[in-house]
Structure formats: C-alpha cells, structure tokens
Amino acid sequence: MLPRVNSAAIRRLNMVRVFHALRENPNCAQRDLSRLTGLDKATTSAIVAQMIEDGLVERSEAPRARRIGRPETALGIAPSAGLLVGARLEPGTIRIVSTTLAGTVVEQSQIPGSTDLAAALRHLHEGIDAVVAASWPEGGAAPPPLRGIGIGIPALMDREGRLVLAPNLGWRDTPIRPLLEEALGAPVHVDNDTKAAAMAERLFGACRGVEDFVYLTGHSGVGGGLFLGGRLYRGAQGFAGEIGHLTVVPGGRPCGCGKRGCLETYVSETSILAQAGERGRALPDLWAAAAAARDGDPVVRTLLEESGSHLGFALSHLVNLANPDLVVLGGNLSIVAEFILPALNAALDEHALEPLRRDLRLVVSPLGPDAVPMGGIALAMDGFLSVPSPIL
C-alpha cells in the first residue's frame, strides 16, 4: 500500500519555499517565483494569493520596463507582518536584535548579563521589551506583532530544548525553554549558541547554498556548528559540535567542564583576555586585543598566534572527519581573525590530510559578533514557519 500524502504538510512546505524565495529575492515578480521555487505557476499563484490575504506578503509597483501590457508588480514580505527577536545570552552580556519577518535588522542593544538564572531572565525580559518598543516609531501605525523569540546560549542543549550543562554560566539540568516562555510571555525557540549562529550563516551569511561547512565561534567558550549534506548535524542526543572541549594541551589549563587543556581554555575571548593579563597586558575585550596587535604589541601578537595554532590543530580533526567545503570564523573570533588565521592555516597544513585540505575555504563571517543574535532570529523564523498558525 502506498503511503498517504499529507496535503496540509505539502502546502506548508510550499509556502515556506515561497517565503524564503521572497526573503532572498525582495521585490520579486510573481512570474519569477515558479523558477525560483520549482513550483508550477498555479501552485505559486494560489500560495501568493493566500499569503497576501493573510498579510504576510504585499505587492508594490515594480520599476517600469519598456514592455507592452499590464504593469508588473513586485512581491515582498510585508514589514507589518511581524517582528522577530534574537538574543545571545552570555555570562557578562546579553546581545539583542530585532528584525522584520524577512530578517532585516530594525533595532539592536547590548545589556549586562548574569550567571544568576533569575537575574538573567529579568535582564533579558527588560532588554527585549526595550528593543521591541524601539523597533516601531511612536505615533505611527499599530506595531507589528511579535512572532517569535530565538535565544542562543553557550550550553549543551538536548533535542527537547533542555539545558544539560552550561559551564560558563554555572547552570545544569535546567528546563530552560519553559522558563524563558514563562518569563517572556511569547513563543521562545532556544538552542546552543553556535548551532544558532550556524543557522544564521546558512540563512543570512556566508553559507547560503553551501551544503557542507563548519562554523566556529568564541565568546565565553568555543563552539562549532556542523552543516552536513545541507542539514545541521546534531548527533544522537543533540550535542554534536562541541569543538571547544577537544583537548589541545593534555593536562593544560583547567576548563569549566571539569577537564583540562580544552580548546576553549586557550581560544575563547575569556581565556585570551585572561592569558593576556597573565602576561602583563590588561585588555577589556577582543577589540582592544586586535588594536594592540595592530599596533605591533609582540606579547599580544604571540598570544593570538598561539590561539590560531591551537584552533587549527583542533579544526584539522573536524576537517579529517567531516570533509567540509568551507570553514567560517564567526562571533568574536572574527574580531581577531587577521591575527589568528596565519597560524591556523599553518596548523591545518601540518595536521589535515592534504586532499581534504587542498580545496578547503576559510572565511570570516560577514555577521561578525552579531552571528549568535542573528542565529536567534533564524531560530525564531524557523519556529514561526514550522508551527501551525492561521497565517501558515
């Protein structure tokens, strides 16, 4: 017996396809949507009509061309269709961004974080309220609805969204998603910060159209997101990608996970600044480290070269295992990328298999330090598009 076709699921998948085609090709003519989506004209027309009726898509007049016949109209995701909010929750700071439903940034903010769970939730709530309020001008039309919130956390997150361990926050075995939804009063989608950032690179950044890539970031820790065969690889329990806890110096610096010599004890922003202090260079952040290196400070330059070597050594194992097309340095690693890349490349040349290394591309994320908040946007967008609603 042939399996039954779920027509509602197919309609939803087709709508999502049209949504992303319009997001990536704003002011697109309807006649081009079939080519962009691979859907037939009748299906495309029906989906567009429904999305317009539901307020998700709007028409506008396209630039006039010298053509005879009815004037052409352009289609786009309506700015009034809704807001999305993304956040990066770190021990010291919380970074928040709001966007239109299409992912266009509207407002952003950075506020103090906390390792106290109740205080962190309170700060997050206040920060999101402020960003949402600033996202729509006073005295204008009614503000668009908040469609979803996505949050990236430096933690082991299982497939059910439970926080298993966040060494740098001091949290473990926490039902974080229900707590966030209760505190924020809105749909919340939460994931490991690096996996979220990898999703942002796939939707908005350097990895659009790339099937196999590794995304690396370093804030309070170091994380890796693996996209294999066009899908985010999560592993059996959802924990895949913890490159920050590969051992690079056996018996080395103590790590918050309880082990010693982990990569993140040498390459995260927190560890780089701590090591700089141990060597007589008090630096407030990686922007200051990059400035010192640019000014020729030999101590900071040596420290960043060492970090690059450790990162390249760890990355070579991922390259040998997964054979990616592309490696992206994101988050705060992008701030010091120019100073760690030479040593990183040298370590890859030494430790990665030559056929796998030969065509590997390394790029710095265009999303920079906002990759994780934009990953929150990617989580919120994916959640909005996947949950049944009157619009979709």
Per-chain topology:
Layout: H1 7-24, E1 28-29, H2 30-37, H3 41-53, E2 57-61, E3 73-77, E4 83-89, E5 93-100, E6 105-112, H4 117-134, E7 146-153, E8 156-157, E9 163-166, E10 171-174, H5 176-184, E11 188-192, H6 193-204, E12 213-218, E13 222-228, E14 231-232, H7 264-267, H8 269-278, H9 286-294, H10 298-322, E15 326-330, H11 337-351, H12 354-358, E16 361-364, H13 371-386
CATH superfamily grouping of the largest domain: ATPase, nucleotide binding domain
Helical amount among residues, as a percent range? 40-55%
Question: What is the CATH-assigned architecture of the largest domain?
Answer: 2-Layer Sandwich
CATH topology of the largest domain: Nucleotidyltransferase, domain 5
Number of domains: 3
Strand content: 15-25%
Count of discrete alpha- or pi-helical segments spanning 4 or more residues: 13
Q: How would a textbook summarize the main sheet?
A: 5 strands, mixed
Written as H for each helix and E for each strand, in order along the chain, the element string is: HEHHEEEEEHEEEEHEHEEEHHHHEHHEH
Helix/sheet category? alpha/beta
The CATH class of the largest domain is identified as Alpha Beta
- Approximate shape: globular
Q: Please state the average pLDDT score.
A: 88
Radius of gyration: 22 Å
* Count of distinct strands: 16
Strand order, sheet with most strands: 6-5-4-7-11
Question: Which stretches are poorly predicted, pLDDT < 50 over at least 5 residues?
Answer: none
Q: What's the N-to-C terminus distance?
A: 30 Å
